[in-house]
From TrEMBL:
One Gene Ontology biological process: proteolysis
Signal peptide: none
Keyword Hydrolase part of the UniProt annotation: yes
Gene Ontology MF term list: peptidase activity
Protein name as catalogued: Collagenase-like protease
Amino acid sequence: MNRNVELLSPAGNLEKLKIAFAYGADAVYGGVSHFSLRIRAGKEFTFETFKEGIDYAHARGKKVYATINGFPFNSQIELLKKHIIKMAELEPDAFIVAAPGVVKLCRELAPQIDIHLSTQANVLNYLDAQVFWDMGVKRIIVAREISLKDVQEIKKHLPDMEIEIFVHGSMCFAYSGRCLISAVQMGRVPNRGSCANDCRFQYTLYAANEDHGTLFRLEEEPGVGTYIFNSKDMNLASHIKEILDSGAVDSVKIEGRTKSPYYAGVTAYAYRQAIDDYFEDKFEADKYQRELHTTKNRGFTDAYLIHRPFEKTDSQNHDYALSKGSYEVSGLVTEDEKHFYCKYKIYPHDEIEIFAPLNSTIEECDNELGKIYQKENGKFYISFNKILTETAKELESVHSGNTNKIQLPGKLPYLTMLRVEIDEKDCCSFE
């Protein structure tokens, strides 16, 4: 039994990197915008802040994998060479690469950096895995469309190769990234890291008669919708036991190219518990699902790892494309653990749930500012009698546009989130 199964989370910026680690991730993946499929999220990382994140991770015994998984044109190869050398100087734990030529280039220019093959390479069998293993690839991030049986077959043929699978996050309508809808309609190429998510759009359907040029608009049945390409989000938390029982998986990966800090925290928290509970023989799927359903999503599906595509009838969401969620993040605790930044809105006497990093210790208190208390459900809450800024200015309420630090009635762990349950129709800047 492999007790060293890695939990790998997305890190779109330095804050999300720290949150992922605080809530249970063993490693994160991210990158600057150059030559990465995380080009939009990657813009939040500079070379300097990415290096800071790597150093932060290594100081805590964690890992960072750098994405260089775009598909370059001939005109970019010289720039790519310089980029590989510069990224290697930051000392990440591995490069995530998709194109065979880029794999070869990384081995030549930065042989000290491990290579992980991106899911964009769509590896589904041990023959393809063998080719990349022979090229020096240490880990295969298999295609999202693979079955668990095929994962086991690859591991059987290549026992020393690490295998990483996606367990949560957005799904492509096509084989991961092998889609041109965005390129045709918006001029934004998915395999260049700039997908416009055209598959999430609502479409109007027409029927044409070429003989006499008649065009009919097709009316949809109420409730059916016209989100014809829109995939539900992957959620395999309930299948972690089957995945780990297989003995073939070395790393479980959460998708999150452009997701929120709250998503980074909740998904790491839920899957960390699922993995740890599995090894302690107390796996409880409903517990993890309750947390995961608080995040915005397009509806969940267990995708293709457990069931073949032709066995599925629930992988598409034809009703809506905007993510739904049941919780809003009201605040994020600062590094001094005495203040928070408002991310939504807070009024005096609101009851706000405390969502703290894994294995945190929270002390109850009751004073002039407010109170921190635990309820019968085992959860901790906070309520404010007064809302005071760091400089003791009293406010009637505080909203996300206010950038002042707000005083807490007692200390809370760094990166703790304050959250409230909301109507699903509401939205938020933090989520």
